[in-house]
Amino acid sequence: MRDPADRLTPLGVILLALLDENDMHPYEMKRVMLERHKDRLVPITNGTVYHTVARLEAAGLVTEVGVDREGKRPERTTYTLTRQGHDAAMDWVGRELARTDRLVEFRVALSEAHNLPRSQVIDCLETRRAAITGERRLRSDGLARARAQGVAEQFLIEIDREQRHLDTELSWLDDIIEQLDQDSFIWDAWKRPDSHDYLEQRKAVQI
Predict the structure, then answer these.
(1) Where is the Transcription regulator PadR N-terminal domain (predicted)?
(2) How far apart are CA 36 and CA 33, in angstroms?
(3) Helix (H, G, I), strand (E, B) or coil at 84
């Protein structure tokens, strides 16, 4: 049987993470995502949200908990996260934190990494750092060989750019892993999902 995490999209993971905070209907999910500017990470439209919620429900990752109507507005179905949905989302986040070949997925995983234990996040990022160190070495060796053979720089600018991006990410990974190793870096300081402090922190993330 296919692992439920394998079928998840970045938008699906964001929606599951929202339902881990509170039960919501799709319209509210969209509103909260836009307030938090999740459209920096994935396209967010009525169509994509409703379609993704339907797929999550069909997969048993969310389930209906009620239908309400306000005035003359259409009925709105409220959904809750299932245990399978929670586990699938967390598995997905852990996997994508460690991968180096899917930028959009990594950014979404990083935005939801706070849902994982600190030690797991450190392990995932260390795995990522090891992989990127290997990739950076390959780029560096390739550039050195090309330059030694007299290849003109105009043919190497894309590889040079990629190497510099890898340098930047390695520097960031070193910094964030070091911070996560320190008790002064707050993690899991509030109980979820009904903690007032937690919800206030999440509301504040609107950048």
Answers:
(1) 15-88
(2) 5
(3) helix
Question: If one looks up domain 4-112+194-204 in CATH, what number appears?
Answer: 1.10.10.10
Task: Tell me the pTM.
Answer: 0.85
CA distance 124 to 110: 11
**Cα(173)–Cα(126) distance, rounded to whole angstroms?**
8
Burial per residue of 23-44, b for 16 or more beta-carbon CB atoms within 10 angstroms, e otherwise:
bbbbeebbebbeebebeebbeb
Domain ranges of the chain: 4-112+194-204, 118-180
Tens of pLDDT along 157-186?
999 999 999 999 999 999 999 999 998 998
Tens digit of pLDDT for each residue in 32-57? 999 999 999 999 999 999 999 999 99
Q: What is the pLDDT of residues 94-110, one digit of tens each?
A: 999 999 999 999 999 99
